[in-house]
Amino acid sequence: MREVRVIASIPDGVFVNRKHIQRLMRVMGIETLYPKRKTSARGPGHRIYPYLLRGLAITRPNQVWCSDTTYIPTARGFCYLVAIMDWATRAVLSWRLATTLEADSCVEALEEAGPPGRCSPGGLPPPWRPTPASRPWRRP
User: Fold this and answer.
1) Which of 53, 63, 75, 105 has the least C-beta neighbours within 10 A?
2) In terms of C-beta density within 10 A (0-12 exposed, 13-18 middle, 19 or more buried), how is residue 10 classed?
3) Is 124 exposed, middle or buried (0-12, 13-18, 19+ CB in 10 A)?
4) Alpha helices by DSSP H, 14-86
5) Phi and psi at residue 81, in whole multiples of 5°?
6) Is the pLDDT reported for residue 140 higher than 70?
7) List of long-range contacts for 60-66, beta carbons under 8 Å, 24+ apart
8) What kind and span of H or E run contains 126?
9) Which stretch of DSSP H or E encloses residue 77?
């Protein structure tokens, strides 16, 4: 862990250390924004699901899909990004950006990804195959 050697300065020229700033923040009720300890602690009664892909060799496109939901902080709150990906090719099959964390955007992304077997042998879905026009930053 890196040691912080910066001394905070108050505008009138008085130097204070980190512990004094921590105490003042605690008195004023100000908190920093970072993940707190034990954010991954399991809740009481939470069921542990088995990992179904253990021992499975993922060797071809369209064998296993995965989804990921992540939040993006904005000035007015959060946006939620849902992505459906193919594990073998790591291609993004579909994605949705929503302002609420509801199942509608997840279902829409899954329906847009299409039925299993949609991918071509190359791995990428046909409408998303890269072309020179889709990559204007690369020189031919």
Assistant:
1) 75
2) exposed
3) middle
4) 18-28
5) -110, 125
6) no
7) 60/88, 61/86, 61/88, 61/89, 61/91, 61/119, 61/121, 61/122, 61/123, 62/86, 62/88, 62/116, 62/117, 62/118, 62/119, 62/123, 63/87, 63/88, 64/88, 65/93, 65/113, 65/116
8) none
9) strand 77-86
Structure token pair of residue 15 = 């130097």
Task: Please tell me the distance from the alpha carbon of residue 9 to that of residue 11, in angstroms, as a whole number.
Answer: 6
pLDDT of residue 41: 78
CB 93 within 8 A of CB 65: yes
The more confident residue out of 126 and 103 is 103
Dihedral (Cα; 15, 21, 27, 33), 10-degree rounding: 150
Quick: pLDDT tens for 13-66. Answer: 677 788 888 898 899 988 877 777 776 778 888 888 888 899 999 888 888 899
Cα–Cα distance between 28 and 30 in angstroms, integer? 6
Max CA distance (Å), the chain: 68
Whether residue 81 has pLDDT greater than 90: yes
pLDDT of res. 4: 41
